[in-house]
Records
---
Amino acid sequence: MGHGFFVALEGIDGSGTTTQALLLADRLECLGVRVVRTREPGGTSLGERLRELLLDPRAAIDARTEVLLYAAARAQHVAEVIAPALSQGAVVVSDRYLASSLAYQGYGRGLGPELVWQANKLAVSTCLPDLTLYLDLAPEEALRRRRDRGDAPDRIELCGDAFQARVRQGYLSLAASQGDAAQVVSAARDRDSVAADLWASVTACWSGAPQTTGDG
Ligand code: TYD
């Protein structure tokens, strides 16, 4: 879609998508690339309000309703942020996107990826990532990192390790079906090693990537 380049970062809770989205966007900006860094659920004022609802541990949300709320936030995100940025030639770096719904609601909740995809068609239209980077990490290690960080678990994180394990397997199946548009990177290493691998994937996949020498 458009002339820009759309990268999404994915992974279970605690795998480091937020940190890596920041490092990737910074690196691109340092090279003079116009970057829009954003996140899901969120990225717009409506999306951030839906995010509060979706992550509130006190909210009781049916699994199908959950799919539709994430999709609603996504539709607004595409219309207001992602599609305009891409049509202006920017690189969009999104901390989570469609694959989060396929993995969390499709595999984690057990609704199946096909049903979740059907519900999301209206939200994404033709706006699919050029590259999805999957940060792969064992649920036990991800939980340890979340505990070290010390923030209170949100509604999704309260679903437990077995849920996160299903989400992880879901991500791996999705990645396997996406060919060149997907890259799985082990997140069980220090953040700079992970960032270097992600950077290599981006420059390999994006023909507009600035030419650089070394791993900078
Ligand atoms: P996350 O971005 O991981 O926030 P933080 O880093 O502050 O914990 O939180 C978003 C949560 O929402 C995460 O558990 C994944 C979940 N999620 C879905 O279940 N479906 C979706 O479509 C998206 C975008 C996120």
Note: Helices lie at 17-30, 45-55, 63-87, 98-108, 113-124, 139-149, 161-177, 191-205.
---
Amino acid sequence: MKNKNAKIYIAGHKGLVGSALARKLEGDGYSNLVFRDSNQLDLRRQTDVEKFFEEEKPEYVFLAAAKAGGIFANYNYKAEFIYDNVMIATNVIHSAYKAGVKKLINLGSSCIYPRLAPQPLKEEYLLTAKLESTNEPYAVAKITAIKLCRYYCEQYKTNFISVMPANLYGPGDKFDLEKAHVLPALMRKFHLAKLLFEGKYDKVCEDLKEYGNMPMLGEEQASNLTGRQIIDHLAKFGITKDSVILWGTGDSSRELLYVDDLADACIFLMKQYDVNELGELINIGTGVDLKIKEIADLIKDLVGFNGEICYDNSKPDGTPRKLLEVSKLNSLGWRAKTNLEKGMIETYNYYVRRKGAS
Ligand code: GFB
């Protein structure tokens, strides 16, 4: 990918990861990027994907398209998470092989490792024990993609690499109260609680219109809600002016990786790393994790909410810990650059600058 005119296809360019890749590649002067949104190309449809690859013939592919979400989304949409992700990966990887793609980076996830694997998680722990149940369908699809890349490399001599990032966050994230990952979900919960405390009901209405979570409102329009209705609505999500209810015990830990750092690592690997140098997959992380309770305290302070944090133990904790061992990547000369405080500020700014949230 040394040539800045190289034809590069980013599958999933509108998502958190794909949009960060596009930003970084464009910033680095790559001028021949290929995109299709899901209305133009449904990656679950084999013949459409094969046709697209035959016509466009990209040289490099970042496979960042996926049906993704936080613990609640993974748990509630299991069939969609396995079907969509297996289909997307299978179609893109097979079509990339048929179209003679020079190199492909397949984006996985740290949830592919066994639930109770030793920490930090080494790449070789893949498939050594049972997966975490809350995201097993997603993990199985991601493991399928890793194995597709590996065996296409072995049989067809392709150069298809799989990378496993830690929990991602950053601008471009989704802020749905139920389907989002933990960091954006908490940011929005604390922000809405602060707006309630300040009595800014109009701002809450604008936020609900912008970011969703409207179905529970039934027939009513968010703009016509009274203060009382808004308070009742947010209480259903555990949000009041004095407290926010979070899920689980708060004792599980997560390693948070800023999405621009992930994009940087993927482009670094696309340029410098070839398959089989260091095995079938490579972790991308910071090497540091925090308990959900600690993450919650940081976000609460950043947002400026002064109320109480409560934990609902009836909700799942998910994997207790999934800290990635990142020495393979470090040995190639790459390290994460963005500290959590800076990354959180950027993410919060992205959220509040969008219409209605501030
Ligand atoms: O990011 P997250 O939703 O998914 O984080 P996973 C879940 C953790 O945050 C659990 C706690 O310990 C939850 O109990 N938590 C507390 C909350 N309050 C909230 C809240 O309001 N919203 C959310 N979302 N969590 C993901 C997988 O698992 O890991 C993905 O779902 C992917 O598929 C990703 O693999 C890397 O970290 O548990």
Note: The first helix runs from residue 16 to 27.
